[in-house]
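[User] I wish I could look at a protein chain and see how it folds. I have put the entry right below:
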Amino acid sequence: MHMDRRNAILKSLVAVLLVFCLAGASGCGKKAMPSARSKTRTFTWQDMNATAVEKCINFKGTLAGAFENLDGIQLELDPVNGPEDCPGCPFNPSQKVSFSPAKAGFNAQTGTVDFSYCPAPAKAYRWRVIGQNIYDAAKAATTVDKLLPMP
């Protein structure tokens, strides 16, 4: 009788483990990176340009899509003090500056931004601008890095 009870317990344990294994293998839950539920929540850079104005840089750009979801702007700068830019080199910004939509001169009707920043002196800067979305799951809008020679 003692052996029958032991076998019954063992069979029950095996059955429970089998159920858990099947539940885990069935793919319960989403296993992909989160993304915006709707493309109507995202925006992209239509254009973004930088102009050297004395020792400062003026940035002007336009967002396309759901730009009303702009939460802020991050400017990334990599000073270039050598004789030439390195187009194949990775972009490693040493300066990162955040702007609220208001500080970035954001126009909620047109999706344009217009702001200036005065970095430490350098011969040129590699730069890029990131538009951060109010929805954490939505991908940020990032420009490609560009080179701006300074006067």
